[in-house]
Amino acid sequence: MYASFNVLLTSISAKVPWIQAVRQALEQLRLPGLLIGADCSTPCIGSYFVDQFWQMPRLDGLTAQELLVYCKEKEVRALIPSRDGELSFFAENQDFFRRHGISVMVSPPQAVATCLDKELFWKFCVDHGLPCIPTSKALEQIDAASYVVKEQFGAGSKQIGLQLNRAEAQAWAAQLMHPVFQPYVEGREYSVDLYRNKQGAVQGTLARSRDYVVRGESQITSSVKDPDMERLCEELADKLGLYGHAVVQLFKEEGGTYTLIECNPRFGGASSLSLAMGLNSFYWFFQECLDHPLPPFERSFLEKQQVRYATDLLFNLAPATS
Length: 322
Prior knowledge:
Blueprint: E1 6-10, H1 16-29, E2 35-39, E3 52-55, H2 64-73, E4 76-80, H3 84-92, H4 94-99, E5 103-104, H5 109-116, H6 118-127, E6 147-151, E7 161-164, H7 166-173, E8 179-183, E9 188-196, E10 202-214, E11 217-224, H8 227-240, E12 244-252, E13 258-264, H9 272-276, H10 281-289, E14 305-307
Parallel strand pairs: 1-2, 1-4, 2-3, 4-5
Antiparallel strand pairs: 6-7, 6-8, 9-10, 9-12, 10-11, 11-14, 12-13
């Protein structure tokens, strides 16, 4: 029997808005509980924003049983991973942790594997009749005037090559570990945040435009109403069998047609706008951990824009000595 509702966040790095969003949901729960942050690196910016910090061993040197021992010691009830590279570990061990009273906010293993492999994701969409950007490891299989080149596995676009000709695409691919090729598409890019509950229903969906993107993340993003776009992403989530928070990226082309790009089965860097719009993913997850019914999604009637920026945290230290 647990005396408190403690939450473990892994790979916290410098993800301060994410940490603060989870804390707000934990406070909304109105139960005694600590926010425990873990990361394999120290110093760690995120450690200044949690109640306790654990310099966690790398997952390739840690077993599920060893992690369970730590969670039991700290009375952890809920665990939220944040990094693409750890999602498979937690997806594969989700049932193991659940049997020991610890809920993990992660999708099933096959859904995670499909989302993290861009070529596999494209094939999945084709097989299920969903519009998706063609993706191949072979450049000759993509017929396009210009190309996009990116890593096959994981989310994010830090090493993406955009609007390249064939020679440039081949040169760009040579510097990547597992390159894939896509046609370059003219269109406005959107992200759609959603939460799919453990009953297999989408609890809420929120579309937002990617107004200004730096290294694959929206630094400026605005909420939009687009029911058709949201329905498409809900259909994708249902067919994938996602659980928890996910972010779908897609294009809206001239004429109003949609093209799916990828699905990140986790909370995204700019997903905090969706929380501000009423998509209360972390609170819903905590309620599910406690087997409580979920309150409905109440979307803000005001549209919002979010600007991400760096800020400073200051501490008073001991007086200087001569």
